[in-house]
Amino acid sequence: xxxxxxxxxxxxxxxxxxxxxxxxxxxxxxxxxxxxxxxxxxxxxxxxxxxxxxxxxxxxxxxxxxxxxxxxxxxxxxxxxxxxxxxxxxxxxxxxxxxxxxxxxxxxxxxxxxxxxxxxxxxxxxxxxxxxxxxxxxxxxx
Length: 142
Prior knowledge:
alpha+beta, Thiol Ester Dehydrase, Chain A, 6-stranded antiparallel beta sheet, 3 helices
């Protein structure tokens, strides 16, 4: 057992990853995870490209949405997306390794807000994603 699975927060991540087949298909690798925070990496594959040869925006959005989901559920309260916005600022191509970092900006009783950035290997911003989550009040792990 590694350090991510030795505590409740790690068990939350482990359970989420077991059930999240889409994030697994994307090849997302969680690098760091704690309450209100998630950092992950993935590599752009050829099947993720659009008709112009760049990464499809849906891939960037989905990876950011996964980091958002991991971060907003990290306190063991089932949370779901209420509102999200993304701005694409730079091109990414096959073979690029992208890092996605989700940071909690606000944690309220029913609403939480997150800033999620996607960057390339040079540290250049690829996309900026902002997510607002609704906190159901129900525990994820019982």
